[in-house]
Amino acid sequence: MFERFTRSAEDVVKGALDHADRAGSRRVESAHLLRALLDGEGSRGAFVLVALGVPERRASLERALDLSRRRAGLSGADSRALAELGIDVEAVVSRVEDVHGEGALADRPRPRSLFGPRRPFGKEAKDVLTRSLRIVTARGERRIGDEHLLLALTTHPGAVAEALADHGVTHASVERILYGEGEDRGQAKAG
């Protein structure tokens, strides 16, 4: 599949590996792919993020990702669902961190390997890559760009899609910017 990636998509994958390494994560996850997308410049994915005003809200988006990581990847929706069952996720996280230290529920660092620090892709990140291929195939396009990775991130349920949606980045908003879908095409041509 990687032979079908554009340079910008390759840069996102490499950047995700770097983010996972800096975070000391055992695996590359979808949040690392998003962080690498946020680093991009001059690509279609970067254009979409700028058009949606994400750079001005990047710090807020990063805090949402950090909070999810602290809660072992649970999204706000997951936390609310557990609250309905009488489970206070923040109380559980605080209690675990009191006993085991801050960030105890976050992905634990992987021991160094004799073969280097290569990190595998986690299930969520693999799902995002697979979804990006499906998006390209469905649209009749040939190459996977960083914009397809962004679209795939918006459709994968969980903390990353929730954080993106909370910051105005939804599948519909990304498609509208990339392809003009959802516009009244008659008005778009007239204007």
Automatic annotation (TrEMBL):
Residues annotated as domain Clp R: 2-187
Gene3D superfamilies: Clp, N-terminal domain
Keywords carried by this UniProt record: Repeat
Statement: the UniProt record of this protein carries the keyword Glycosyltransferase: no
SUPFAM superfamilies: Double Clp-N motif
Pfam families: Clp_N
Coiled coil: none
InterPro entries: Clp_N_dom_sf (IPR036628), Clp_R_N (IPR004176)
Domain of life: Bacteria
Protein name, as recorded: Peptidase
